[in-house]
Batch of 2 targets.
Target 1
Amino acid sequence: MRAVRNDESGIHVVERPEPEGDGALVDIASCGICGTDLGFLAMGPLPFTLGHEFAGMVDGVAYAIEPMTRCGVCAACVEGNDNRCIDPSHVNFGIFVDGGLADRVRVPEYCLTPLPVGLSVDDASLVETMGVAYRGVRMAAVQSGERVCVVGGGAIGLAAVGVARHKGIDVDLEARHQHQRGAAERLGAGIASPGAQSAYDVVIDAAGSESGLDRSFELVRPGGRVVLLGVYHGLVPIPGIPMLVKEVTMIPSMAYGVDVDGAREYANAAAVLAANPEIARSLITHRFPLDDAAEAFRVAADRASGSIKVVIHPDR
């Protein structure tokens, strides 16, 4: 079967053995390219198939795939935070183990999230992005009347906008590119004023950069909250004076687990997508067949070209 890997000369589609072992065999229908995947390119050759945002068919039924394993018995799993599972067997598909940028992959049965009515399997790879955003917005614990701003107009930031609007939260976006701001406006968000200072009760940093953190601490009011939704590689300096003077609460958020209603956050994120089709229309800007993976990665890395979320479809 075909699979996407990063070798000495970059991204290539290679032939790999069919996946073996236990679990459900998923015929991949869609797989998104994430910023994490782009980050892997800088690491050089890697001995695994990329892709942790994927959906597909199992025995003719469509599913979004929650790409994390869990032991189910450690304290984190029992309390519903299985994203923090401490079992050595805990893995993320597409992150140092084979993922979904391939024709097929095997996953545990519990990773299968049935698609709600109204959500196409071609759009369902976006559930992973929405799941990350869903948890971040939930952990922000926004109260009635609070002002919220998302910093960063990539897929995670815009997904956070979509989740917030679904929950009836007024939200602004601060983003670098006009096409990102346009997508936010289509989702019902406002645009943060370039000169805004101490204007928001909650700021969600979805940029994952030093400049994004700086701006988040500028935007948050004294006593406010900054949700750390970006991925920070290595040490990242926290703006010390604003943090101390404003007494800001920082809330890290990673992946997804169990929601307060007892349902999987992944399933609830899928329901948000199904109820708001404009989210997928606004976020998925480019689609490619698997054989064009190298070009798909090039486009995904060029935000100035108008890309937000690039999706690969092995069945095309």
Target 2
Amino acid sequence: MTRLLQTTLFYVLIAIIVVVAVFPFYYAVITSLKSGTALFEIDYLPTSLNLTNYVAVFTTGTFPRNLFNSLLVSISVVAISLFLGVTAAYALARIRFAGRSALMLAILAVSMFPQIAVLAGLFELVRFFGLYNSPLALIFSYLISTLPFTVWVLTTFVRDLPIEIEEAAIVDGATPWIIITRVFLPLMWPALATTGLLAFISAWNEFLFALTFTSTNDQRTVPVAIALLTGNSQFEIPWGHIMAASVVVTVPLVVLVLIFQRRIISGLTAGGVKG
């Protein structure tokens, strides 16, 4: 009886967690399919299939351009983070040099500061380099939050790779770059998938830097574009358009997580168990 009660409570808890996690997105999908006064009616089941809000989002305003900006910035951030993360992980995990531990702590310390604490200084750097109101400003600023996590996870993963593999490659005359790209890289896919996806999600959803470092609609990313959506007048809030845009932005992330969920788990647990 006790075992049955424990199993029942476990599945009840799982059901509650699923409902709390999924219901907001489910309700956003239902609301995005409404228009007019139906937006203010509380319905938990879809009553109609009206794609007017989705058509309006893609045919009016600069949302397609904002979507392209988010995709460009996020992919660039992932590519740069993984390139710098892999090379830094090899140096920090395999090469002994003075100050290695201090450097690792410094990298970790960077990620401890909230965005608002570095916003003013980062704004001065962006303005000094002439990057304001351009995708380069966002790529540069997003690396501050994505690089530390990427370097830490990949360094932990590289440390757990057998040293004999590297020694065999050195005996065969492989250079450090060959070791990284042809020996370690094929073995690091779980960690690369984890850090790459989390970096993509972080860049895709970032709001504060995108709001501060862009000033025109055609340079903004989707989080800012959605927040600044207005109707026919300045004070009209198009809730249907906002919900439709939010669903369009969220679906790619859900699909990516479902595709790479196994690699995400194995990447996050890398280094957690010693054999």
